[in-house]
Amino acid sequence: MLSGSVVAVSRDATHRFSKANQDRVRLLAGLGVEGDAHLGVTVQHRSRVAQDPTRPNLRQVHLIHAELFAELREAGYTIAPGDLGENITTSGLALLDLPTGTRLRVGPSALVEVTGLRNPCRQIDAFRGGLLKHVVGRDETGSIVRKAGVMGVVVEGGTVRPGDPISVELPAAPHLPLERV
Predict the structure, then answer these.
(1) Cα–Cα distance between 119 and 107 in angstroms, integer?
(2) pLDDT in tens, 129-144
């Protein structure tokens, strides 16, 4: 069985790039992280609101694997949980390899369905110059590779804390690869 754990949880009530670490966050079904600027049934990311504020919010929860931070350290960047705007920092789970529709049981009761890949923008370079090219690149075939985590929607609410386990429920086959959302 695929599994991992929660390293950190973060939220911010305003639209800033980084989010403050918390001792716990509460996920609300159909909405996202209580007290976070991206909470809502419809899109909350400013660029998405400008395009069409009525679209469903497929980016209620942002998860990043802590293993990315080690990779970025090798490139000269010191990144900590919450720095890249994620709500849940994970460990031991290859988030980017999961298929669309994977469900993550996080902690004792929360359930998050993975909707797609985070598509980082130039704001990441404002946070740390040159960082964008380390989280978005191309593979040997020329295909775009996005490494800045996954997005999801809250199916079942619950409280999530650092140290909580994460278990994976794969969707029925055939599995669809993650696309940017």
Answers:
(1) 26
(2) 999 999 999 999 999 9
